[in-house]
Specification:
Elements (H helix, E strand, L loop, with lengths): L1 H29 L13 H4 L7 E13 L2 E6 L2 E7 L15 E9 L4 E9 L1
Parallel strand pairs: 3-5
Antiparallel strand pairs: 1-2, 1-4, 2-3, 4-5
Length: 122
């Protein structure tokens, strides 16, 4: 009986240690990422000339809420409408005084152009 109990305890110990090691390994892997060139910041003026779906990084200010998920964004070269879905704010709160960096892509329609924002950073 004692030997069976010791084998059971040893088996549980091995199983829990393996599970813990796998969890730690997974956590470390999730913290990785790409190290190298990224998309350079551009201006509103230049972004307006980009093709549909081109990635952009802009730095400036969100000036006003235009309704629903649309906002007016301004940098030193001009204004553009941006669209920020609720979950893309990721808890960041900004005012018109705050300089922000937005990452997104150009969304060109027949008669309009705006930026579909993926992330906002103060």
């Amino acid at each position: 009986k004692k030997m069976k109990r010791n084998i059971l305890i040893a088996s549980l110990l091995v199983a829990s240690t393996s599970a813990f090691a796998e969890f730690v390994g997974t956590t470390q892997t999730q913290q990785g990422g790409f190290i190298g060139p990224t998309i350079s910041k551009t201006t509103v003026e230049k972004a307006k000339t980009f093709k549909d779906d081109m990635p952009v990084v802009l730095e400036g200010n969100i000036i006003e809420h235009l309704g629903k998920d649309k906002y007016l964004f301004r940098d030193k070269t001009g204004d553009i409408t941006i669209e920020i879905d609720h979950n893309d704010w990721r808890g960041v709160q900004v005012s018109p005084k705050d300089t922000v960096t937005i990452n997104g892509e150009v969304d060109k329609d027949w008669m309009s152009i705006e930026i579909d924002v993926d992330s906002v950073k103060k």
